[in-house]
Design goal:
Strands 1, 2, 3, 4, 5, 6, 7, 8 and 9 form a nine-stranded antiparallel sheet that branches. Strands 11-12-10-15 form a four-stranded antiparallel sheet, covered by helices on one side. It contains nine helices and 18 strands. The chain has four domains: 12-172, Cyclophilin-like (Cyclophilin), CATH 2.40.100; 212-240; 252-352, Alpha-Beta Plaits; 359-441, no CATH class. The chain is an alpha+beta fold and 443 residues long. The longest helix is centred in the C-terminal third of the chain and has 28 residues, at 386-413. Belongs to the cyclophilin-type PPIase family. PPIL4 subfamily. Residues 17-172 form the PPIase cyclophilin-type domain.
Length: 443
């Protein structure tokens, strides 16, 4: 078969339709004319329809082009037309073309660079050890997202996918080569048959029932685990967990929304009915000693902790409905044990220094600061003209107002106590701060 080089500057595309989506490749007609002719004519006779991606090696290659799916089959268009002696032919090696990037399409060759119908798509970069035997003849121009999906397919230890990925159809956008006389082009795409679908495992459109054959108890455990992971992912998205896979201490319970009057002994007595408690601590402000309205309860064993978790959520303690959880304590607050305090972490897991006070304490300090500032301004302005007195007084008030607005913004935004916004205590103190803001604005 004689090749004419009339298309040296022209690139030609083929769409490879797969069960995961479409991939468009440009062929290197001028650099690899014989390899491109082989590929185009095989596409034209629908040779690749329903071919299995029998080998997928993550970050390396995805190989197909064997109608038997056995990895050992396939023949070139010359073998189909002229007999078994021409099953393979020598692929071009000039000019040198290397496997340098993801998305190259290359015919599989042996030590003598003999190639047939099998080809692969590269799934990684700088695969120099493929250069000597295999023949690059094109590149992917559209469908890199499909390549990524192929790259993530789950395979066994032999790199064979558990669920089939197949070529369903190939579309030639333009064929510059004349058809050989003996080439028979089908009028329509062939229907899937047992012969064409051989070598597969789980069909691409087959529903996989993960629960089939499992006991009800095992199914319930799997479903509970999935729900827990989904909740953890949501917490990670909203910032309550730095990592969805992070595991909390299994015998430590986090308790929040406590009444400020609730102390360590109260909690220990209440939770001890579920099992032996190693330690129990209500976390308090280091300076004022005020309860921060959350605590940690450490049990002797995990089973007791689990029982308390299921029984104590939303229980009324000192006129407050508490909330218990396992995971919250590991996100941004880490308890070091009774009497050793807690460490706070930012979103990146780094330690941060935080001063946490109850809103009542903040309100009292704001009131005192306002009164002191007002008195200082009045005293220092006694010998000044009235215009300057008024001006100085209002400048001070503006500073106080700005500071109050910033504090209020932070108090609302920062989670000082978990889910504290739902308590009457919180709303009452915010109301007090808002009243003071209104008083200052009317001065």
């Amino acid at each position: 078969m004689k090749l004419v080089h009339l298309y040296k500057t022209k690139k030609m595309s083929v769409v490879i339709e797969t069960t995961l989506g479409d991939i468009t490749v440009d062929l290197f007609l001028s650099e690899r004319p014989r390899a491109c002719l082989n590929f185009l004519k095989l596409c034209k006779i629908k040779y690749y329809n329903y071919n299995l991606f029998h080998t997928i090696s993550r970050g390396f290659i995805a190989q197909t082009g064997d109608p038997t799916g056995s990895r050992n089959g396939g023949e070139s268009i010359f073998g189909i037309l002229d007999g078994k002696l021409k099953t393979f032919f020598e692929g071009e090696n000039e000019p040198r073309m290397k496997h340098t990037k993801m998305g190259l399409i290359s015919f599989v060759g042996n030590q003598e660079r003999m190639i047939g119908s099998q080809f692969f798509l590269t799934l990684g970069e700088d695969l120099a050890y493929l250069d000597e035997k295999h023949c690059v003849f094109g590149e992917v121009v559209e469908g890199f997202d499909i390549l990524e999906m192929i790259n993530e397919v789950i395979c066994d230890t032999d790199e064979r996918p558990y669920q089939d990925v197949r070529i369903t159809h190939t579309v030639i956008l333009d064929d510059p080569y004349p058809d050989p006389n003996r080439l028979v082009v089908p009028s329509r795409s062939p229907s899937p048959s047992a012969e064409r679908l051989q070598g597969g495992r789980i069909a691409p459109d087959e529903e996989i029932d993960e629960m089939e054959g499992k006991l009800p108890a095992v199914i319930a455990e799997i479903q509970a685990d999935k729900e827990a992971k989904a909740r953890a992912t949501i917490l990670e998205m909203v910032g309550d967990l730095p990592d969805a896979d992070m595991a909390p201490p299994e015998n430590v319970l986090f308790v929040c929304k406590l009444n400020p009057v609730t102390n360590d002994d109260d909690l220990e007595i209440i939770f001890s009915r579920f099992g032996k408690i190693k330690s129990c601590e209500v976390i308090r402000d280091k300076k004022t000693g005020d309860s921060l309205q959350y605590a940690f309860v450490e049990f002797e064993d995990q089973k007791s902790c689990e029982n308390a978790y299921f029984k104590m959520d939303n229980v009324l303690i000192d006129d407050r409905r508490i909330h218990v959880d396992f995971s919250q304590s590991v996100s941004k607050i880490r308890w070091h044990g009774k009497g050793r305090g807690v460490t706070h972490y930012d979103d990146k897991g780094k330690k941060v220094k935080m001063i946490i006070m109850t809103l009542a304490g903040v309100t009292i300090k704001i009131r005192g600061r306002i009164l002191i500032t007002q008195r200082i301004i009045r005293e220092k302005a006694t010998n000044l003209p009235n215009e300057l007195k008024i001006d100085l007084y209002h400048q001070g008030i503006k500073i106080i107002l700005k500071g109050l607005e910033i504090i209020l913004h932070l108090l609302v935004k920062v989670k000082i106590n978990l889910e504290m916004k739902e308590t009457d205590h919180y709303h009452q103190e915010v109301k007090i701060i808002l009243e003071w803001l209104n008083i200052i604005r009317n001065l």
